From TrEMBL:
Coiled coil: none annotated. Belongs to the universal stress protein A family. Transmembrane segments: none annotated. PANTHER family: STRESS RESPONSE PROTEIN NHAX (PTHR46268), UNIVERSAL STRESS PROTEIN UP12 (PTHR46268:SF6). This is UspA domain-containing protein. InterPro entries: Universal_stress_UspA, UspA. It comes from Flavisolibacter tropicus. SUPFAM superfamilies: Adenine nucleotide alpha hydrolases-like. Residues 1-127 form the UspA domain.
Amino acid sequence: MKTVIVPVDFSPTSYNSARYAVKMVTGTYDVNLVLFHVFEKESEEEEAYFLLEKLKTELSEQGIAKISCHAELGSDFPDTLSRFARHRAAQLIVMGLNGKTKLEQIFLTSNTLKIVDKNPCPVMIIPPSADFASIKNIALTSDFKDVMSTIPVQPIKSVLEIFRPQLHIVNVDSEHYVSLTEEYLQERAKLAEMFKDFKPEFYFIGTFDFHDTINQFVADKKIDMVITIPRNHSFIDNLFKSSNTKKLVFESTVPVLAAHE
């Protein structure tokens, strides 16, 4: 049984993520969806469970899925959620971006990005206006460098196994205007073996504009989710240093899955 956790703080963003998640796992009978909430005072526990159960009832009317509720006392939401996800050996956390304003998002106060940084399991980041249709095509972005030690194969495969999609592995690099190097071809062969169960297709795109190219790729190939692998130890630091990654997370029209070792 796979565990998918949806943190709920009773905000519109978290409700949207929960609705997206239940539609996403509907009909997948080996998945347990857990609605998770952290409360700061013991007096809030009863109301927390009341609201979670109310949400569960609403979601049960929108899709067929195994749903459970869990709330616990905690003062540090990212730590509490990370500990719970590891305890449950979760395969996936589904969250939105919780910054109240665009400025807060730019300065990375979002708990979502802190959870990505702690890396208890892959985190699917849902765009604010996203409404689930299907996940048939998934794009995995890779720089094709040392893939054996930088690609978190098992966590990614655990997510892919939920959807059984067509996998598109794409590299966007200005160096490919001329030709692919032998090193890139070797790394491609390793990736093909890693994900052979999903019969991946490979794309090497020579361009200087990563963000616009990925957006166009998403549109052209009808991509339903993009997987990104943060290379820095701190995903938050990486966002400060990389406008491409920041745009990918904050401006994507489809969910972005962040997974790293």
